[in-house]
Amino acid sequence: MSKVLVTGGCGYIGSHTLVSLLERGYQVVSADDLSRSDGSALEGIKKITGTEVKNYRADLKDPAAAQRIFAENPDIEAVIHFAAYKAVGESVAHPLLYFANNNGSLLSVLGAMEKQGVRQLVFSSSCTVYGRVEELPATEQTPLGEPECPYARTKLMGEQMISDLAASYPGRFVSLRYFNPAGAHLSGLIGENPAGRPDNLVPNITRFAAGRLPGLAVHGSDYPTRDGSCIRDYIHVMDIARAHVDALSYIKNKMPDRRHEFFNLGSGAGTTVLELLKAFERANGIKLNYKIGPRRPGDLPAIYADNRKAREVLGWEIRHGLEEMMSSAWKWEQTV
Questions:
Q1: CB 231 within 8 Å of CB 272
Q2: Using N-to-C axis directions, what is the helix angle for 322-333 and 273-284, rounded to 10°?
Q3: How far is CA 277 from the centre of its chain?
Q4: Which of 130-134, 196-200, 293-297 is the least confident region?
Q5: Dihedral sign for Cα atoms in the order 33, 233, 189, 242
Q6: Which helix (H) or strand (E) holds 3?
Q7: Catalytic (active-site) positions
Q8: How far apart are CA 8 and CA 35, in angstroms?
Q9: How far apart are CA 111 and CA 66, in angstroms?
Q10: Rounded Cα distance, 321 and 329, in Å
């Protein structure tokens, strides 16, 4: 099988995708500067797959660093690009940091691909490119709205950069728009381990349950939803990871040149925050003494995906449900 470069391979989704690639017979190489991870996922990957993955500790904002990786691995045939910062609040406080890192690293990788003649890319995008969605579920034809934060804008800009390149370069490009990845590898050997206070709900839940956080709040109980809490679309990280491998197969076997296609990755159904908390309690037999707090500025009442295109075109399928998401996340938490 071909060799795939995974940028941000030591991160949450990147590490799970490395596992999926190896299980499907791909050769892999990782590039991660370890600014938002510590590299420990590589040991977990080795235990799961029996393969030691080489990681280049490289700052991909530097075009020369990106080009060196391709020069040392002339057999790279495809790239899966994760390398990005993703904390919404941090992006609001430090927008230039996000533009420099997220869009700068993508620019370097695209330039190195063009120089080396690599023509296959899967881009880690986000449902945040839709902004405030007027009609749910969101489909790939839903108009892209004004980004709600600089992080979202970097993802929208990234998609636009790729589309502009696709118009002139004979490559094949797929952008995967994630909704809310959650959970961990079922072995408990790799999972989500953000530095500092987690930005996402599930690691907040597991850290609170483990006594690592002093409190857990539900932000708002008066939204126009079935129980008053926000609705989001949670999808198991291993299902997300497999979608990247499905996308590579689609790119290689079915896509024409100079194309950039987009796919939603979500469960296709919304889950309220309170329903998610109850799913954790059921899956793990743990009572969560959370509090109900006020709304947070900028939170949307609801967003969830129409995932039919990914299922029909990529042949992608969802294998893990909400309670398996919560049980795997808790299993991982107990190893951290």
A1: yes
A2: 60
A3: 22
A4: 196-200
A5: negative
A6: strand 3-7
A7: 151
A8: 10
A9: 9
A10: 12
Token couple for 140: 């790939």
d(CA 206, CA 277): 10
With 0.90 as the threshold, say if the pTM is over it: yes
pLDDT of 145-172, one tens digit each? 999 999 999 999 999 999 999 999 999 9
User: Residue 293: what pLDDT?
Assistant: 95
pLDDT digit string (tens) for 190-238?
A: 999 887 778 889 999 999 999 999 999 999 999 999 999 999 999 999 9
Residue ranges of domains in the chain: 3-183+235-266
The pLDDT assigned to 181 comes to 96
268: closest CA among 306, 231, 241, 237? Answer: 306
CA distance 41 to 77: 24
Place of tokens 């790239």: 79
Q: What is the CATH number of domain 3-183+235-266?
A: 3.40.50.720
CA–CA–CA angle 34, 40, 281 (5° rounding): 110
